[in-house]
Design brief:
Length: about 500
């Protein structure tokens, strides 16, 4: 039951790369990345975590070379650790209701991608990962553990690294030392002193990571710390450790990884193989993941009906309207009747000053340039006092104020790309914009390592629209016709991107 990963004889002729994915770590990260997006498929089943989980696995397969790969899950709440300590993980809250139906679907996602799935009743995923690490290193393989779980950092060594998918960085021996002040082979001692409130592991009260590292570095290991605690000069620290020896030893039993599990399948069964594209496409289509369908199709030269999305963009941008003032913008939206969603695209100059706003609703789009509205308002002030009495303050704040009822309507989804500035302006007016879909944030959540989350980049990736057509910036050099086309096209693309 140690965490040593020493090499043994009888190495294979060719060493390979073994990738072990901490399944539920992936799932919970995926869930929290999309916790505000409320993604559901046609039958109402929530699938936001499944979408992000699938996308993360696809991204990992694309970026990390692997000869063997498995997704490792916890099989249930009760393990051998609960027999040691009945209160182990007793303080953990139940899983969110909308996540529970997604647990079997993430397993289906892994299977659809052709990946091996491993779990064993009575053990945690960490124990299976530790065991397969030992087996893999003994066979001469390199191991990459996809997780950021600190308990798994005990396994890091010359032939084992971890990969934090959220931060897109590897965790090596140096990173463990930097974080905890000790090498991985001493991490169990440090964690035993610290305890873990998330898992209800007691540790020694009042001992944090810095103090724990100082003690282990001074005395060498946990047993020596406990045996020679009387040499500690600080009275409170000395007495606390002496009074909690049993808790420290219990914590070590709970945190220590079991690396001799009788595993349910051999390492060779994790050999990476190509996914069955038909099965994968069927799974993605069943969940309603149209953008992932498009991505898989492009990577595998399979036809998908992306043309209908491009046609939708062209259809919307063929009905553009230039709006002269805020009241006319409100009237334009009102004329659309009951709408389920509206996209909002705000355009800025190099100094960050808002130049105008474009909105898209159903099959049409409109653009309100603030300078044009300002000119008309000033004209009204000098030429028609009665007309000016109903005018609004021109600018983004004026638009936000005028559209208050729409922005706060819970039945209308507000869609934008990088919506934070718009929300800041609204909050200054005590307007709560909800619900909101920010396609830039969604893109970042799904593909944190992707380089281009711009509207142009997303249009090219998901709609096959040449990025160069969308990269231009709104400027005073544009003709009125070009400005109208560019702005309405942008809001229309936002609307369509949110549908796939």
């Amino acid at each position: 039951m140690g965490a040593s990963l020493a090499m043994v004889e009888n190495m294979p002729e060719k060493a390979g790369q073994v990738v072990l994915v901490d399944g539920y770590s992936f799932v919970f990260r995926a869930y929290h990345a999309l916790s505000r997006q409320n993604l559901t498929r046609k039958d109402g089943t929530p699938v936001g975590a499944v979408f992000a989980f699938t996308n993360m696995l696809m991204k990992m397969l694309n970026e990390h070379e692997a000869d063997y790969l498995a997704v490792v899950f916890d099989a249930g709440k009760k393990t051998f650790r609960n027999e040691i300590y009945s209160e182990y993980k007793a303080n953990r809250p139940p899983a969110p209701e909308d996540l529970i139906p997604q647990f079997p679907l993430v397993r289906e996602a892994a299977k659809a991608l052709g990946l091996a799935i491993v779990e064993k009743v009575g053990y945690e995923a960490d124990d299976l990962i530790a065991t397969y690490c030992r087996i893999a290193v003994a066979k001469g393989h390199k191991v990459k553990i996809v997780s950021s779980d600190k308990d798994l950092m005990q396994l890091v060594g010359e032939n084992v690294v971890m990969y934090d998918s959220l931060k897109s960085r590897e965790i090596t021996v140096d990173q463990v030392i930097e974080k905890f002040g000790v090498a991985p082979d001493k991490l169990l001692d440090v964690l035993s002193l610290m305890g873990d409130s998330a898992d209800n592991v007691p540790g020694v009260p009042g001992i944090g990571p810095k103090t724990a590292a100082e003690l282990v570095n001074r005395f060498g290991d946990l047993d020596t710390v406990l045996k020679r605690a009387g040499e500690i000069k600080q009275n409170k620290r000395r007495e606390t450790i002496q009074d909690n020896v049993d808790k420290a030893l219990l914590s070590r039993d709970l945190i220590r990884l079991c690396e001799d599990v009788d595993v349910p399948c051999e390492l060779e069964e994790f050999a990476v193989k190509d996914a069955n594209i038909d099965e994968l496409m069927a799974f993605l289509q069943e969940q309603g993941f149209k953008n992932l369908v498009s991505k898989v199709a492009r990577l595998n030269n399979v036809e998908v009906p992306v043309e209908k999305y491009i046609a939708s963009v062209e259809q919307i941008t063929s009905d553009n309207k230039l709006i002269n003032n805020i009241n006319d913008l409100m009237q334009w939206v009102d004329n659309k009747g009951k709408i389920p969603e509206i996209s909002l695209a705000v355009f800025y100059d190099k100094k960050g000053i808002a130049l105008g706003i474009s909105v898209a609703v159903e099959a049409s789009a409109a653009y309100l340039p603030f300078d044009l509205a300002q000119k008309q308002e000033q004209s009204s002030l000098f030429g028609d006092a009665e007309a000016s009495s109903g005018s609004s303050v021109v600018g983004l704040a004026g638009v936000v104020s005028a559209l208050k009822n729409i922005l706060e309507n819970p039945e209308i989804i507000k869609i934008s790309h990088d919506v934070k500035e718009f929300i800041k302006v609204a909050k200054r007016q005590s307007i709560e914009v909800a619900p909101v879909d920010d396609i830039m944030l969604m893109s970042y959540s799904f593909n944190a390592g992707q380089g281009d989350h711009s509207l142009a980049g997303l249009a090219e990736e998901y709609l096959q629209i040449d990025a160069d057509e969308s990269k231009a910036k709104l400027s005073s050099d544009m003709s009125d016709e070009d400005s109208l086309s560019f702005t309405c096209r942008s809001s229309s693309i936002i609307l369509i991107l949110n549908k796939i």
